[in-house]
Write a structure and sequence with these properties.
Blueprint lengths: L1 E6 L2 H8 L1 H9 L4 E2 H8 L3 H13 L3 E9 L2 E8 L1 E6 L20 H25 L17 H22 L29
Parallel strand pairs: 1-5
Antiparallel strand pairs: 2-4, 3-4
């Protein structure tokens, strides 16, 4: 089972976004039968079977084994991943594209960059799995609490200078056998937790 699977096709995305099917995917971190899932979700077994077949047709669940109860053979299925992300590729021509944004400081541009990362890395990860290779990636995730907007601006300026200097030092457009990598660095405020209203 994968940690994260990126859903590329619009049909698979539509199947996974159905509320009942999304709940089934969440329940299938371990193999289960339609009867077990029906009892957990308080749904008719036939309805659960219908939804499982739809998910299986899009390769979002897979059969793992069979077990016999009296004269009945029950199939056990599990989700193909612990969690799922829908790729912007599922939107076809309407998918977000950083190249269409004029404002590089906008939230829309940042979202388009993040969407491109999902699309590109998921395609590379799929190819790496198919060839039995490991995909070399680097992820850094940290939090910084700035004292003021002025310090945030100073940090941005210093970080830009440092990245520019490093990129200039290591980038070699003429390197034979070299491979170009994409570096995306984003910063955004953390969402504030909703304050509980006093009763």
């Amino acid at each position: 089972m994968l940690d994260v699977e990126v859903i590329q096709s619009p049909q698979a995305a539509a199947a996974a976004l159905d509320p009942v099917r999304a709940r089934l995917l969440a329940e299938l971190s371990e193999p289960a039968s339609a009867a077990t899932l029906a009892a957990r979700l308080s749904l008719p077994r036939q309805k659960v079977n219908y939804h499982l077949r739809a998910l299986e047709s899009h390769h979002l669940v897979r059969p793992t084994s069979e077990r016999k109860w009296g004269g009945i053979t029950e199939r056990l299925v599990e989700a193909t991943a612990s969690s799922y992300v829908v790729s912007p590729a599922a939107m076809g021509p309407a998918a977000s594209d950083p190249g269409r944004s004029r404002d590089r400081l906008s939230a829309g541009y940042l979202i388009a960059l993040a969407a491109r990362v999902v699309r590109e890395v998921s395609e590379l990860a799929t190819r790496a799995r198919e060839t039995g290779k490991r995909l070399a990636t680097l992820s850094i995730d940290t939090e910084i609490r700035f004292r003021s907007a002025a310090e945030r601006a100073q940090f941005s300026s210093e970080l830009t200078a440092a990245i520019t200097q490093l990129a200039a030092r290591y980038h070699d457009a003429s390197a034979l056998g070299g491979r170009t990598h994409r570096l995306v660095l984003v910063a955004h405020p953390l969402p504030q937790e909703k304050k509980e209203t006093a009763v």
